[in-house]
Amino acid sequence: MSPNSSHTLGLTVLRSIRRILRQVSRYSRRVGRDTGLGVPALLCLTAIAEAPAGSDVTVAYVADAVQLSRSTTSTLVDKLVKQGLVTRARSEHDRRRVNLGLTAVGVERMASSPVPLEERFLQRLSALPPDEQAEIERVLARLVELMGADDLDASPVLVSEADLS
Question: Are residues 141 and 10 in contact, defined by beta-carbon separation less than 8 angstroms?
């Protein structure tokens, strides 16, 4: 491959990365416009809504479910409580634990929310043949390495860093 074609390939790859970033940003704006919530907050609502009946739904549980830090999740839950979408109540089994639940308004907000971008992506990815899935994983891992980002921790939540604050 000539240096010029290698440069052209690099620009094509960078354009593809930029398209992905733009789609994530566009989806985040749409969710915000349609629900009044950021994607991480919507994912927290979803985790609370989809928790097994009778289980303790704590901030730690939600943080693990959405794969965000506990401090970030706690901040998001505080905002959801202030907006009247989530309730906090002491556990009947262990008074030290605080359980979370959706209010009627939270349930309504969930019902009118769009399908998460991650969920749509995972459905489409799982429909691909296993060898194509493995190739995508291999190429993306190499791309992460080439960009010097292999030491960064990242959750599978597709949002910008600004959306997490």
Answer: no
Q: Which of 89, 85, 79 is nearest to 102 (CA)?
A: 85
Q: What are the domain boundaries of the chain?
A: 3-164
Architecture, CATH, for domain 3-164: Orthogonal Bundle (1.10)
pLDDT digits (tens, 9 = 90+) for 123-164: 999 999 999 999 999 999 999 999 998 888 776 666 655 555
Spell out the alpha helix ranges (H) of 50-129: 59-66, 70-82, 104-111, 117-126
Number of CB atoms found within 10 A of residue 39's CB:
26
Q: How far is C-alpha 92 from the chain's CA centre? A: 31
Per residue in 53-97, pLDDT tens? Answer: 878 899 999 999 988 889 999 999 999 999 999 999 887 777 788
Count of H-run helices and E-run strands, the chain: 7, 2
